[in-house]
């Protein structure tokens, strides 16, 4: 489990260094100067403590952002988890919670009154399909215009076209040189390709030996 906890003074946690359970405010006063750390990645200050809530071992992260005076409490039952990992997992969970909140508020998720199991599954499926369509429409209309999509695709095609023309020129040059030298171009290239390892030059030879007119840029990784 991982999630936020309320700053409730009635909630008390038993740490290994204290004889009696303490609430979050008491833990902040006691450990802020001695056990606080700073996370550069998320630009926040946090206190990491291992404690128990009842009989359940937990790890507590008490977090404060920037110059804010307000603290937030992040709890997890995985006592080996570090702060960055816990923060990233909660970010994912928060995104899921936002999706469910928007679906319940705007698309009527969970309001199907049918007693049929299949009807409930169908209603939930249609609700999430509608959410995906609306999210895609929002992305196109607000974050990435059709003009931007067109320009990115045009640039990609221009790179591929330039690569095809370059291969044509290299192939023509090699044919002229082989003709002047009186050697068999295909035999020479086959010998070189067989001796080379799978690097960039080998991939170029393979494309040059290809009889197809469909030239694609080789993978440089």
Report how far the terminal alpha carbons are from each other. 39 Å
Tell me the series of helices and strands, N- to C-terminal.
EEHEEEEHHHHH
Q: Number of folding domains?
A: 3
> What low-confidence regions span 5 or more consecutive residues with pLDDT below 50?
211-221
Largest sheet: 6 strands, antiparallel
Number of E-state strands: 6
InterPro entries: RNaseH-like_sf, Transposase_11
Protein name: Transposase IS4-like domain-containing protein
Domain Transposase IS4-like: 56-132
GO molecular function, one term: DNA binding
Account of the protein in words:
The chain has 221 residues and is α+β, with helices and mostly antiparallel strands. It folds into 3 domains: 2-85, no CATH class; 108-143; 147-206. 54% of the residues lie in helices and 16% in strands. It has helices at residues 24-35, 83-106, 117-143, 146-181, 185-195, 200-209; strands at residues 2-5, 14-15, 36-39, 44-53, 56-65, 72-76. A hairpin with a 6-residue loop joins β5 and β6. It starts with a strand and ends in a 12-residue tail after the last helix. Residues 211-221 have low confidence and may be disordered.
């Amino acid at each position: 489990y991982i999630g936020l906890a309320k700053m409730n003074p009635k909630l008390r946690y038993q740490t290994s260094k204290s004889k009696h359970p303490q609430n979050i405010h008491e833990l902040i006063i006691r450990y802020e100067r001695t056990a606080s750390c700073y996370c550069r990645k998320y630009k926040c200050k946090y206190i990491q403590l291992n404690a128990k809530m009842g009989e359940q071992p937990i790890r507590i992260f008490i977090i404060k952002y920037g110059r804010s005076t307000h603290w937030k409490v992040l709890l997890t039952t995985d006592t080996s988890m570090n702060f960055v990992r816990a923060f990233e997992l909660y970010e994912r969970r928060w995104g899921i919670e936002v999706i469910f909140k928007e679906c319940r508020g705007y698309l009527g998720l969970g309001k199907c009154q049918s007693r049929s199991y299949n009807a409930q599954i169908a209603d939930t499926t249609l609700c999430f399909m509608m959410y995906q369509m609306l999210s895609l429409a929002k992305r196109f209309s607000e974050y990435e215009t059709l003009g931007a999509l067109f320009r990115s695709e045009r640039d990609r095609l221009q790179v591929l076209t330039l690569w095809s023309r370059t291969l044509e020129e290299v192939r023509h040059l090699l044919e002229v040189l082989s003709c002047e030298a009186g050697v068999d171009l295909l035999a020479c290239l086959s010998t070189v390709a067989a001796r080379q390892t799978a690097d960039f030059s080998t991939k170029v030879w393979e494309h040059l030996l290809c009889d197809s007119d469909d030239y694609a840029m080789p993978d440089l990784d």
